[in-house]
Amino acid sequence: MCGIVGGIAERHLAAVLIEGLKKLEYRGYDSAGVALLENGQIARAREAGKVALLEASVKISKIDGSIGIAHTRWATHGKPTQDNAHPHMSGDVAVVHNGIIENYQELKAELEQAGYVFLSQTDSEVVAHLVHQALQQQNNLLKAVQAIVPRLHGAYALGIIDANHPDELIAVRQGSPLVLGLGIGENFIGSDQLALLPVTNRFIYLEEGDIVRLTRSDIEIYHQGELVSRAVNELDISVSSSDKGGFKHYMLKEIYEQPDAIQHTLSVGLDHDQLKDDFLSSGNAVLPAIQHVQIIACGTSYHAGMVAKYWCEQLIGLSCQVEIASEFRYRSPVVLNNTLFIYISQSGETADTLAALRDIDKRAAAAQKNIVSLALCNVPTSSLVRETDLHLLTQAGPEIGVASTKAFTTQLAALMLLVLKLGKINGTLDDAQEQELVQALWQTPKIINQCLALDKDIEAMSRQFVEKRHTLFLGRGTQYPIALEGALKLKEISYIHAEGYAAGELKHGPLALVDNDMPVVVLAANDFMLDKLKSNMQEVQARGGELFVFADEHSGIANSDRQHVVYIPTANAWIAPIVYSVPVQLLSYHVAVLRGTDVDQPRNLAKSVTVE
Ligand code: G6P
C-alpha cells in the first residue's frame, strides 16, 4: 500500500527520503515521487515504476532541499502513471496521501467550479487544492489544514508542505498509519517506523485525528484543536534486522528465520513442560466466562485462524468460527454473549480487520453483550493492538517480503499457546495433554530446521511447475488450511493459478480439472486423516494426474513414476500444520525464482493493506 516519508532538517534530505522509500518498498507500490523545498521553491520528481527510477531521476535533476515529502503509490484511483504519482501540487502546496478520500468526487466538482484544474485521476489531488484554497483565506499552513480535514471523508494519512511556509511540515493521521521520528534538530514522518530507522530510533505513534506541525526543533500535536502530548518510544530494533543478510530475497531469509522466530514466540508462553503461570495473565479475569471464539482476519492470517478452529474445537471443545474480515464486517453479524473475538493480523493495520473490530465493539455495546477482543499481532505499536482488550504478540521480527512466511508460522505457534491457555482456564485440557503439546511445540524449531535441510530436494521438485499454468493443493483436517496457504503463496509470487482444496471435496468439482498438465500437491502428515487422504490421492492417479507429495517419513507413501515424494520428518499431528507450511513456502519460492518474478514485491500486491 502507499507509503509516506517526510522530514524537516538542517541538512539536505533527498537521499534520506529516497532511502526511506526503499524501506517502504516491501509494502507494495507501482509509482514513486518526492517534493523538496529549497530557496522558497518546491521541486518535484515522480516516476511510474520502482524507487530506483526515481532515485536516478532525482540524481539527474539534482533536486534537493531541507524539507521534503516522498511517497510510494499503490494505485487505487487512476492508473500507475507519472501524472497520478504523488506528491500532488496546487500552486506552492505539495501533498502526499495514503488511504482513500471517499467524497473526492463531490469535492472535485466543487473545486472545478472554483476554477481549479485537475491534472491527475487520483482522489488525492483534491487535498492539495483544498489546502491551497484555504491558504487564500488565512496564510497559516497549520490552520488551513485544520480547516479542511473535517471535509475529507475516509481513512487517510497526509504529509503537506508549502513553499511559502519554509519552516514547517504538516502531517495528519486519520485512519491510516503514520509515525513521527524524532531527531536532533530534525524531525520526520513515516507510514512505518522501518522507513525512519536509518535516521532515528525515537518514535511517536499518532492517534487517529491527530494533526501535527513539525519544525526542525519541535513537534506540536493537535487533537480536536487542542495541543496534546504523546509518549515517545525508543526502539532497540536495528536497521540490520530489516536487511537481506546474505540471502537472495527477503522471503528466503524470512523462511530461514522461522526456527528462531517460533522459538522466541514459544518462549513468551512456555516453561519447560507447561504453560507459564503468567502467560496472558491480563485475561485471567475475563477468559473464564468465554463460551465461543470468533476469529477474524485476512489473507494468510485468515489461514492461521482456520488451523486454530480445528485446535480449538478438537482439543478443548470450545466452539470456534473463522471469517475473513471483509465479509464479516458487512454482514451484520449476530454477537453471541461471552465471545472471545480474536483479530489476527501481522501488521495490525489491515483496514478490513480494524473495521470489523470497531463494528463488533459497537454492536456488542449496543446489545449489552459480554465480549473480549484479543489482537494476535506482530507489531506491538499497531492500531489493532492499541484498540483491543488483550494482546498476544508474535516474535517474528520485521517481515519485509509481501508473501507472509515467518509471520504465519509464528501466528500458528501463538494460537496454539492461546488454545492451551483457554483449555487450562476452562478445565478442558488435562496435565498430560498439556505436557504432550508443550513438548511437541518445543520440537517445532528443530523439525523446521530439518525441513529447511530439504531445500535442494524441494528446489528440484519446483522445476516441474515452472511451465505449468495451474496447480491444485490438497490437504485434510489441519492440513486443509495449509493447502489453501500453499496455493496462496504460489499464486502470489509465481503468478501460477493455484487452488487449495480439502481433499474430500475433490470429487465435487476439481477432479474434472485433473489431467496430465495439472500438478497436484498433497500434504500428507501422519494424522488420523492419512488413510482418507491416500484414497483421494488414488482418485487423482486414476485420472492420470501427477502427484507432488510432502509426506511424513512413516506415511508409507512411496515414490513412483507419477508420484514424487519429499519426506518430511515426523511431527506430532497437532503441530504438523506449522511444519508443513515450510515446504510449501519453499516450493512457491523456488518456482517464482525460476519464473523470474519479483519475489519480494509481487505485482499488484501490498504488504500492509490499509485501504478497503
Ligand atoms: C496482505 C499481505 C498478506 C497478508 C494480508 C493480511 O494481503 O500481502 O501477506 O496475509 O495482507 O495482512 P495482516 O497484516 O492483516 O496479517
From TrEMBL:
Keywords tagged on the record: Aminotransferase, Cytoplasm, Glutamine amidotransferase, Repeat, Transferase
EC number annotated for this UniProt entry: 2.6.1.16
SUPFAM superfamilies assigned: N-terminal nucleophile aminohydrolases (Ntn hydrolases), SIS domain
Enzyme class, UniProt record, top EC level: transferase
Protein location: Cytoplasm
InterPro entries listed in its UniProt record: GATase_2_dom (IPR017932), GFAT (IPR005855), GFAT_N (IPR047084), GlmS/AgaS_SIS (IPR035466), GlmS/FrlB_SIS (IPR035490), Ntn_hydrolases_N (IPR029055), SIS_dom (IPR001347), SIS_dom_sf (IPR046348)
Residue positions of the active site: 2 (nucleophile), 607 (for fru-6p isomerization activity)
Start and end residues of each Glutamine amidotransferase type-2 domain: 2-217
Reaction equation(s) it catalyzes: D-fructose 6-phosphate + L-glutamine = D-glucosamine 6-phosphate + L-glutamate
Domain of life: Bacteria
Domain SIS intervals: 282-428, 461-602
Single GO MF annotation: carbohydrate derivative binding
Gene Ontology process terms (BP): amino sugar biosynthetic process; carbohydrate metabolic process; fructose 6-phosphate metabolic process; protein N-linked glycosylation; UDP-N-acetylglucosamine metabolic process
GO cellular component: cytosol
Keyword set includes Cytoplasm: yes
Record PANTHER family: GLUCOSAMINE--FRUCTOSE-6-PHOSPHATE AMINOTRANSFERASE, ISOMERIZING, GLUTAMINE--FRUCTOSE-6-PHOSPHATE TRANSAMINASE (ISOMERIZING)
NCBIfam families, alphabetized: glmS, PRK00331.1
Stated role: Catalyzes the first step in hexosamine metabolism, converting fructose-6P into glucosamine-6P using glutamine as a nitrogen source.
Oligomeric form and interacting partners: Homodimer.
UniProt name for this protein: Glutamine--fructose-6-phosphate aminotransferase [isomerizing]
Recorded name of the encoding gene: glmS
